[in-house]
Amino acid sequence: MIKGDYSQIKRPGVIVIGGHVQGLGITRIFGKNNIPVVLLDNTKINLTRHSKFCKEFIKYEKDKLLEKLHSLAKNRNYKNWLLMPTNDRDVEILSKNKKKLSKFFKVSTESFNVLINFYNKRYTYKLASKLNIQIPNTWMVNCWDELDNLKLVYPCIIKPAIMHSFYAQTKKKVFICNNKIELRLNYNKALTLIPKEEVIIQDVIPGNNDHQYSVCFMFDGDKPLVTLSARRARQHPLNFGNATTYAETVEVPEIVEYAKKILKEVNYTGVCEVEFKLDIRDNNYKLLEINPRTWKWHSIAEKSNSPILMSLYHRVYNLKPIIRNKQKSAAFRHLITDIPTILKMKYQGQSIYKKRKNIKYAVWDKNDLKPAFYELIYLVSFILKR
């Protein structure tokens, strides 16, 4: 087969947008199922392009994703291929342009009128409250007067309703406020980064990383096709982390029902992750956020018998449905970030979960070695960017 020529392939392929760990997992899962995968990324410093399952790497200019997709749409080799974004910004672009893009591709993201409920956390928290799903104590202030009148318990956090712009500028998910002076300073700082309508002030739920849980689905409007629940036992950085380093499957029926309830309310279809944290003060699970896309540790599905991505593919192309499987005990581990995380936790006196036998490694794969080799080469660049 000539590179870029997929005319002899009978099954539609997948275009993965974003080539770090998450994109690598997507590529391997589809590739192992004999589905061709092409990678789009705005940098050559990515892991996925080195995978043997990546048939082609196409680089595009930063902030020019839509233009690149319009260019690919002219090539019939990619007609009806499935678009799989890996970050919030690209999810937004595909969602807002879904109608136009659907003339040429299959778009895995929901339409924006549905997606807005999870893309903007103010909408998410209002929806959760309507459905009697508990959230951390949350204040959505729009001016100084409202800020001064709040009765807060410190520490608290200031976070954005829409994450990607805030994180791109700060490399942080939240601002931690230990007193009223820090609250004022961080509120002013936040207003230089995001609109006042996107500022959220929230209670800090105590407890270590092992109180963080996720329920993940391939959801089909009013029901899940595949369900996966897990404890995200370790993350980097330790508090308010932006990347899970170790996760393990657990059975928590309570949060599964909460997650199903909120997705069913908006008739959501697609892949998503619903995040909770156990509040040890009242022993209740509090909804944190919903990611309407794949997540970093989604490849745990290979070990846990949870065919999330293949169920998505089969639904999109109206193939024979994949029977929903009961999850098996499994774990996910990203060695290059998990080892330093463990060392920090031990230094702080935190307990460490013993690793399970049935582990899916984020990058290491004895049958696909190049990505692990290049992760070591790119390590300095990854550290500087994050």
How is this structure best described in words?
With 386 residues, the chain is α/β, with parallel strands linked by helices. It has three domains: 14-109, 3-Layer(aba) Sandwich (Rossmann fold); 137-203, Dna Ligase, domain 1 (2-Layer Sandwich), CATH 3.30.1490; 209-355, D-amino Acid Aminotransferase, Chain A, domain 1, CATH 3.30.470.20. It is built from 15 helices and 16 strands. The protein has a seven-stranded mixed β-sheet with strand order 14-13-10-11-12-15-16. The model has no long low-confidence stretch (mean pLDDT 92).
Provide a brief overview of the structure.
The protein is of the alpha/beta class and 386 residues long. 34% of the residues lie in helices and 23% in strands.
Summary tags:
386 residues, alpha/beta, Rossmann fold, D-amino Acid Aminotransferase, Chain A, domain 1, 5-stranded parallel beta sheet, 15 helices, 34% helix
Q: Any chance you could write out the topology, listing elements then pairs?
A:
Elements: E1 14-17, H1 21-32, E2 37-41, E3 54-59, H2 65-73, E4 82-85, H3 88-96, H4 98-101, E5 106-107, H5 112-119, H6 121-130, E6 138-139, H7 144-148, E7 156-160, H8 163-170, E8 175-177, H9 180-191, E9 199-203, E10 212-220, E11 224-236, E12 243-249, H10 253-265, E13 269-279, E14 284-291, H11 301-304, H12 308-316, E15 331-333, H13 335-347, E16 359-361, H14 370-377, H15 379-385
Parallel strand pairs: 1-2, 1-4, 2-3, 4-5, 15-16
Antiparallel strand pairs: 6-9, 7-8, 7-9, 10-11, 10-13, 11-12, 12-15, 13-14
Helix pairs in contact: 5-6
